[in-house]
Amino acid sequence: MSVYLDFPLWKYLVTAAIFYVLLHLLLKRVAKWSVKKTVVVSIVFSLYFALLIGMTLLGSNRSGVTGAILDPLYGIKKIVLEGNVHFLRGMLSNVLFFVPCGVFYRLLDYKYKFYKGFVYSALISIILELLQYVFAVGYFEVSDIICNVAGMLVGMCIAQATFAIINRIKKQAKE
After folding, report:
1. Which of 66, 50, 70 is nearest to 137 (CA)?
2. Which of 99, 12, 2 has its CA nearest to residue 56?
3. Any residues with CB less than 8 A from the CB of 154 and at least 6 apart, and which?
4. What DSSP assignment string belongs to 144-173?
5. pLDDT at 57 over 90
6. Chain-centre distance for alpha carbon 135
7. β partners of residue 68
8. pTM attached to this predicted model
9. What is the mean pLDDT of residues 42-64?
10. pLDDT digits (tens, 9 = 90+) for 120-168
11. What is the DSSP string of 67-121?
């Protein structure tokens, strides 16, 4: 539990608060949602994102260590060449942790475009990796960005498939 004390709480709270404000403004301006709907979705997504920040920034046991690993195949090389199961778990968890982010993105973007989702995914992942680097709680890893983006894309596909099934059921119910 002492790991969490290594990362200043104020950085965590400021990051989560900034994300909430930006998300709330986005939903209010771009999606033109009602205040009630905007607040509810913003809170739920912000709680998820706070948990994600906590796992990414506060859950690190490498506090004070920073650097950049720009090789996009770094994790795969560690798994295949060295048989390092730690990297396999890390890569899978990076994918799984970002699936809900992709689902939320698809729910929030009423004019859904896949390429926008890809760019959005990459930006969120790059920002989190940069925060790890700047706050010296981990490495900026290109392979993590790839896994995070993959997780978000999986989440968007799950949400899209769910919408398609719901629409098909509604259409059949009308017939």
Report:
1. 66
2. 12
3. 95, 99, 102
4. HHHHHHHHHHHHHHHHHHHHHHHHHHHHHH
5. no
6. 18
7. 140
8. 0.74
9. 71
10. 889 889 988 888 888 777 889 999 999 999 999 999 999 889 888 988 9
11. EEE--TTHHHHHHHHH--HHHHHHHHHHHHHHHHHHHHHHHH-TT--HHHHHHHH
